[in-house]
Amino acid sequence: RPGGNITRLLLSTVSDQAFVTLATNDVYCQGALVLGQSLREHRATRRLVVLVTPQVSNPLRVILSRVFDEVIEVNLIDSADYVHLAFLKRPDLGITLTKLHCWTLTHYSKCVFLDADTLVLSNIDELFDRREFSAAPDPGWPDCFNSGVFVFQPSLETHSLLLQHATDHGSFDGADQGLLNSFFSNWSTADIRKHLPFIYNLSSNTTYTYGPAFKQFGSSAKVVHFLGSSKPWTYKYNPQTGSVLEEGSGRADQHQTSFLNQWWGIYHRRILPLCENIRNKDHQGSPGHTTIGWPEIETCAEVRRDPLSTPSPQFADLREIQSYSV
């Protein structure tokens, strides 16, 4: 059963609401797994859903199913005509259009989306008291929201309108954030109640840019977002010393290191045990660090497919990624 290898707290679950994330490949599954487990550890009372693309391999789907309540495949190429048409007209928005599939989860009345490179630091169930479209300001341009964390209400009508908007107008940043800001264009002025505090989407790399503010409010952070090209899984981590190093870049910022240590602590303590059938194909890590191998699991995850998608071909074997542990 989903979550069978993880001890779950006996909590009443609101079955018609969900936390949702997206994993587009095996690498981002690492982030999704830690995110899901961080929600579990902070006693989330909503269901956990992960959307996956055909690029996510079967073994990773099995592991995802042990953390998430639903693993749902979304496939643009084989989707209904209007989705496929949008993709053909705007192939540059492939990943963006994939993320929009979260609006098709109409068996839920309300959802909170979190990017796979976020980490939950405390219970955030109160976000379900917010309305669509609630999000936190983007640190780079506060009149825009950051699309790494947002509250939404699944709706096929909204999904269709978003696809039409993407087809007609594209995205000013080439990604989902530009598209969503263009679609929900009155976010900055219409209703201040839809402005989430920055503590719900704290950029890990702004802790030194806004040092005084972080010192004042950082302890209240509820969700940290690892923006930029350096993700937790691109670092080396030695649990014996607690040191986190970016390959070729020395130590990370002090505050960022604290968040990275929390991420790796969950990965090492809770996710690696799920991979007990791991077989390391290569051992390329430096002394004291071992490249994480991938599991060869005989059973197949029971995966729910989005009603707009059709079965995809057999998935490729897992590829090795550059994340490290001892």
UniProtKB/TrEMBL annotation:
Q: Name one Pfam family in it.
A: Glyco_transf_8
Q: Which GO terms describe its cellular component?
A: cytoplasm; nucleus
Q: What is the E.C. number? A: 2.4.1.186
Q: Top-level EC class, please?
A: transferase
Instruction: State the superkingdom.
Output: Eukaryota
Family, per the entry? Belongs to the glycosyltransferase 8 family. Glycogenin subfamily.
- What functional role does this protein have? Glycogenin participates in the glycogen biosynthetic process along with glycogen synthase and glycogen branching enzyme. It catalyzes the formation of a short alpha (1,4)-glucosyl chain covalently attached via a glucose 1-O-tyrosyl linkage to internal tyrosine residues and these chains act as primers for the elongation reaction catalyzed by glycogen synthase.
Protein's recorded name: glycogenin glucosyltransferase
